[in-house]
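DI3L2 exonuclease
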Amino acid sequence: PDVIIEAQFDDNDAEHGQDHLQDVLTDDIKKLSLDTGEKGETKQDDGPKVDDPRLLPDKFLQRTAKVVYILEKKHSRAATGFIKLLADRNSELFKRCAMFSPVDHRVPRAYVSLADCPPDFVTRPEDYSNILFICRIVDWKEDSNFATGQLAKSLGQAGEIEPETEGILTEYGVDFSDFSPEALECLPQSLPWVISPGELAKRKDLR
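Structure:
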């Protein structure tokens, strides 16, 4: 593999000019291409090569890693976005799936079943080009560029306050359902309710 050498500029480099920087880069390249022996001769064919990453200093290497296990799923796996037909109309996948494109680009695009889509989506996809949907990611195979999702519900027209708000709350896993009767019974029943003078006297008014 090619070795990329990055030079750091400082005040001394600026004083010496471009010729000094070129000399520094040339020296670095020579050091990488020569043997570490006393005579500085090039390596033999049967010896270790300098392009072996194991022989390079750590500063020339890019550290990489691989995710092997998910300890805890922090994301709700739900996202708001739009559905559209697949580009390849001749593929078998086109007959079974649609593409879900989330509004949040940090969330991957996902294949969703056409059975979850509106009945007239295939014949009139333009009618749903501006309709927000909630999709939950259920799987993402290692050999696929896209996740597999399941449409949960249609929120409504994009740009309106209620659908956008519901989408945000669903993505972050916020329960916005109605309060139960048990919770409502804890509230004052005689309405309109006003703060008593005694309660007001011991509180700080932040209105």
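Residues 53 and 61 are 7 Å apart (CA to CA).
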